[in-house]
Amino acid sequence: MNGQIRSRLGLAIAVGTYLFAAWWVFTRSTPIVAQRPVTLRVAHWQIERGPPEGLAAVIRRYEELNPRVKVEQVLVPGGGPIYRQWLRSNLIGGTGPDLVEYGYWLDGMTDIPARYFAPITDEMMLPNPYNRGTPLESVAWLDTFTDGLIIQQATAPVPGQFYAATLTEVSTRLFCNQDLLKQITGSTKTPRTLIELRAISARVRAYAARTGRPVYTLAGSRDNANWLLQFLMQGTMMPRSQRNDRYGTLALNSWDELGHYLEGRWTYDSPEARAGLELMREISLNMKPGFLQSMRDAATQEFLRGDSLFIFAGTWDGTSLRELATFPVEVIRFPQPTPDDPVVGKFYIGPYADGGGGTCMELYLNKQTTHRAEAVDFLRFMSSMEGSQLFTDHSGWLPAVRGVKVPDRIKAYETPKDCFTFGMPYTVIGSTVMSNLDLNMHLLSGPTGSVDKFVAAMEAGMPKAVRADLQKEISNRYLAVRPQDVQIMALNELSRRLPGNADLPVSRERLESSQTQTEALVLQMQLQLQTAVK
Amino acid sequence: MLLSAAAAGALAAKAPAKDDVGEVWQLVADHLGRDAYIKLDGLEGPATRERKFAEAVVAVDYQPVTQARLESAAAVFAELATGDDEIAAASAYLEARLYQIHLQALDYEKAAVLYRALAERHPRSHWAQLGLVKLGLLTLYVLPEPATPAARISAAQALLPRLAEKELVRDLELQLGRAGAFYEQPLETILPHLVAADRIGGLIGQAREDLIVMIGELSLRSGHYAQARTYFERYEREYTYNMRLVTVRRRLEDLAALEAKAREAKP
């Protein structure tokens, strides 16, 4: 009898436990099946302080508005090798995220947009529905961006097609350790001109010698030096760019500069280039010796430790620098040269652009996504006034959208329309040229470096590097235009089936037009390669 | 689009009740070429002209693209091109395209021959018209004859009267102007093409923005100050956000000085 009771009791406990577990699983715990039918993955490398929080705020609000869709951020470290390898292997394997951050300067990745990203041109020409009830309600999505997506347009695989929406505007700034400035100079007055920067640098050197404390004017690393070189070269090369502007577009693209090199229209030995390099060398001597072996993280740490007075960095580092510093940080524009500058004054046209107002953190649409409509919809919300405001407020990064209120704490990142740019600097014009530059930068900096040594080494490798990069430009454009023939035919057939749909013929016509423009560009580049004098 | 009513009617009549091929075109338009290929592979029943055409079109961008697949597609296009409907014109166009940009060994001269033949056979077809624009590009840059830049531009310009679609006229005018600038021809020969392209309108994005600046700047350089002012001021009004605006404003200052000088020089 006892045994029977015990076995019944055991069975009852087992059944009870099972029922409780079942109740718990289906009512309390995380559901076994995702509640939202669509999951979007957004991959980016902005793992600094700020952007993940900003994007998380955007996603929270988007998910409130769209209960069908779940959005996941995929944070992959660095715009360097890890991100590149991760991205390429996922795209090749067909497991790429729906939306992908990409930058034209990513080494060895210039074929990615043409192979894997789909244009969103038609959507860009229409108002963003998430801007309803705002001043941008009837403005085409494209025109809601503060820069009209100019960088993205200049680097798109096919001119005339749009591939990405951006999240933020960036600029380069000088971040100053105010405590250290006062300690060294007795004042918190920051430099406005190169001449003033030179004076402060002299005082920093004197302070370091006097106190024995290894303090430098500028935090140094390969990345920070490259950004500085871009800024200076873009400035000093402006007269040369003007002379080479055969189309009269008042702006040169990277492929223009590559082609011009082969035509013998500029070299690193040109007087304007040498002036920029001379200035770069002079400034780099105020960085810690051996800085070229460090990456940007090392420069950030150097600045945060109080071992350097300034750091020249992008505003993308701004939130990290200001939140992690134990001292007050002032953000100023890099001191500009003046027409009487002894090194670069001869080539001075006007203030050099320190940001150009371009927007970035570009999110591209993966061609293979099975959730195209939802992915584009998320891009629209992300870059609506509401989405952009959320991103700005939670990231401490500038907005990419017009009319979004910029918090006072980051107003210094904005670039007023007061400086000149003539398009691409003469450094970031191709991955092989950039590698050549990286390889030889040590010859420009340091006590044994010189402009002569750098120029000689660069020029020895430039013709081959430029040819390789121009050839890549051609190959990438072929990758972009070939599938367009297929697209054009499909749009035509759909248009024939749906005669009432006015968008289809317009899409086809735009694609045909941009394809023709791209093919003309390819043929010009081929001619430049064939007739090169370098 | 110049789709002849007869051809459209013929195609519509042949379309299956369930528009499977229409679904294929939608997949292709959505960049889902692999799915389109699978869909086509699973279709039953006799292969219509449109289905054969769709199979060849999908094969052109089926990854990995192989030369054998492209050559098979070329053969299908050549066969379909012998017909007398829109598929024939589209196939003839695509056959030329294979030789112009798809095959590993490009054959520009053969592409040019095919474009010319298409324009003779279906002069009003959209594909023939588009083919003439592509022929214009080949003439401007790669065909062996004519050899000099001025002659190339002149030969490509001769194609203009054969174009009836205004967007295609615009695209060829733009390319004539850009080729003139590339070859550094006299500005007086370049500007009319650029202005014509602008007057037709419809360009978007950077192409439109560049065109406005280009006409402004080249007009300034060639002494057409009024035209330069018109275009620079238009840029200033329409592109308030671009940093290029700073340079455009500087050019407007330069222009004002030049205009004043020109006024002073007048007796």
Report what the structure shows.
The complex is a heterodimer of chains A (534) and B (267). Chain A is α/β, with parallel strands linked by helices and 534 residues long. Chain A folds into 3 domains: 38-170 and 358-413, D-Maltodextrin-Binding Protein, domain 2; 175-351 and 430-459, D-Maltodextrin-Binding Protein, domain 2; 468-530. Helix content of chain A is 49%, strand content 9%. Chain A has helices spanning 2-27, 51-65, 81-92, 112-116, 121-124, 150-155, 178-185, 194-211, 222-236, 238-244, 254-262, 271-284, 296-304, 318-324, 372-382, 385-395, 431-440, 451-497, 503-530, and strands at 38-44, 69-75, 99-101, 164-165, 168-169, 172-177, 216-218, 308-314, 329-332, 359-360, 363-365. In chain A, the strands form 3 sheets. In chain A, strands 2-1-3-11-4 form a 5-stranded mixed β-sheet, with helices on one face. Chain A has a 4-stranded mixed β-sheet with strand order 7-8-6-9. In chain A, helix 2 (51-65) packs antiparallel against helix 16 (385-395), helix 11 crosses helix 18 (451-497) and helix 18 (451-497) packs antiparallel against helix 19 (503-530). The longest helix of chain A has 47 residues, at 451-497. With 267 residues, chain B is an all-alpha fold. Chain B has a domain at 1-144: Serine Threonine Protein Phosphatase 5, Tetratricopeptide repeat (Alpha Horseshoe), CATH 1.25.40. Helix content of chain B is 73%, strand content 0%. Chain B has 14 helices and no strands.
Pick out its properties.
heterodimer, A: 534 residues, alpha/beta, D-Maltodextrin-Binding Protein, domain 2, 3 domains, 5-stranded mixed sheet, 4-stranded mixed sheet, 9% strand, B: 267 residues, Serine Threonine Protein Phosphatase 5, Tetratricopeptide repeat, 73% helix
Could you tell me how far the N terminus lies from the C terminus of chain B, measured between alpha carbons in angstroms?
A: 54 Å
- Structural class by sheet pairing and helices of chain B: mainly alpha
The assigned structural class of chain A equals alpha/beta
CATH class of the domain at 1-144 in chain B: Mainly Alpha
Number of strands of chain A: 11
Q: Portion of residues in helices of chain B? A: over 70%
Number of strands of chain B: 0
Look at the structure and give the mean pLDDT of chain A: 93
User: Low-confidence parts of chain A lasting 5 or more residues at pLDDT below 50?
Assistant: none
The total of helices of chain B stands at 14
